[in-house]
Predict the 3D structure of the following.
Amino acid sequence: MRHQRNALFAVVAAALTIVAVAACEPRDDTGLNAIGVAVTTDRVSTRALEKGGIDVRWMTCNADVKGKHTSGPSQDAKASVHCRGKTDDDRTIKVSGTVTYERKNICVRGDLTAKVDGHQVFQASVIGDCNARKTKHPRPSGHTTHPWDRKTTAGSDK
């Protein structure tokens, strides 16, 4: 019984720590924060790569938000994003660039480039569906944009 109580305490303490860190994360008026940008870029980039036929084994992203923090909406806020990962056949994935808008788990806007084993597989200004309805279960619009709609040649080393 005591062991179960200690385990429960550890789980609750970990959850509270995550919530506290996220709550203290600086957020400017554009809504950009490093954790949100990193998680959303990870999710939408993984979906885009898989839509393009690249099986993603794992990917992780980090972001750093910089820009003016003013009382009105900040047009200068940007997040620098760097992701790394592996494909199912053990090739290296790198996604990097700048995010200027993030909608939780749905889309990112900015300038992002994905490379697999050093070969550029996409460069995009929007990944995901930023026009999706704001519901718990967004539906794709007729204007869904995927990086693969503007796929570059696999041999390019940009």
Summary: Residues 11-30, 69-74, 153-158 have pLDDT under 50 and may be disordered. The first helix runs from residue 2 to 24.
